[in-house]
Amino acid sequence: MAARGLFRAVIMGPPGSGKGTISERIVKMFALQHLSSGDLLRHNIHGKTEIGLVAKSYIDQGQLVPDDVITKLILKELNTMRSNNWLLDGFPRTVPQAIALDEAHQINSVIDLNVPFQTIKDRLTARWIHPGSGRVYNTEFNPPKVSGIDDITGEPLIQREDDKPETVTKRLKAYEALTRPVLEYYRNKSVLETFSGTETNKIWPHVHAFLSTKLPAVNKE
Ligand SMILES: Nc1nc2c(ncn2[C@@H]2O[C@H](COP(=O)(O)OP(=O)(O)O)[C@@H](O)[C@H]2O)c(=O)[nH]1
Ligand SMILES: Nc1ncnc2c1ncn2[C@@H]1O[C@H](COP(=O)(O)OP(=O)(O)O)[C@@H](O)[C@H]1O
Q1: Among 105, 108, 193, 199, whose CB has the most other CB atoms within 10 angstroms?
Q2: Is 88 in the pocket of ligand 2 (CB under 6 A)?
């Protein structure tokens, strides 16, 4: 249960708040292993697994995947990461998920990205991803070197089906109803650290400073 000496963190925030972007920086700087529930689900959809087929119908509608499906998937994956420091991105998103996670692992810190909804809506329509790695780009904020092409592999980028404006609105509603209570859950456990702002480059130094008090950096900025 409590893994002594290991650092286990969760990054939360509404869709488009910068979880993927900030996770990439954290992983580079602090060498945590990153597990993104959205990336894992998209791999399953791409591979046409049973879970992928179930998940796709919910994701395309802007709804959360059922708790039992995602919880089983994530806990199984975390079992392969027992000796690592890790950063969980996109899970838990409901209170039952948070309770199930607590029963299996002790969480040291929850990083909450508090970004206004209007800022988010504008960002998501400009988001492009490399489906193989989960690398994320934005035509305005961090464009790829060559339009439509991943910087590292040279493979094509795609736009996510669920980044259409009407689906984004549904995802933000699901966040309000189901995910916001998770913040309260972690606040009561005194592990919640909230970072507010509208720009990742302004939020990042604060996240970096916070994590520096918990972990040694392995890279310079
Ligand atoms: N304009 C702008 N775009 C950003 C900023 N930070 C991240 N993005 C982009 O916004 C989109 C959502 O960010 P992402 O990290 O995928 O958020 P997530 O959905 O919380 O994982 C991506 O296209 C990012 O490249 C920012 O400060 N300004
Ligand atoms: N913990 C989870 N519980 C339920 N559904 C999830 C979870 N994580 C991801 N999903 C599903 O996958 C979709 C995409 O997730 P993700 O890539 O994390 O989105 P974003 O980064 O934009 O917040 C979500 O809208 C939801 O349908």
Answers
A1: 105
A2: no
